[in-house]
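Note to self: keep these together.
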Amino acid sequence: MIHLTQLIYIKEGKEEVFHEFERIAIPTILKYNGRLTLRIRPKDDSVIENNIEVPYEIHLVEFETQEDFDNFKMDEERKKFIHLRDESIESTVLIQGLRLN
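Structure:
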């Protein structure tokens, strides 16, 4: 199992464009043995401490295999809407990790 944490930073005023992209990208995760386990939009009063800019959203996603994740990234339908991602997202930080028991 692959666990991903994504910090998403949005261009100012492009929130609706980002939401449009997410309406396509999030359901696509399921096609590739993936699951969005948590989607957070942090507010200033929910941050206890930070040494980085607070992201617009934080996504926790898991895929069964690296191949599933790679196939998700190459999905043809999703790629048709990449321009929405590019228009709306300033930057992302993708952290890949392992679940510790």
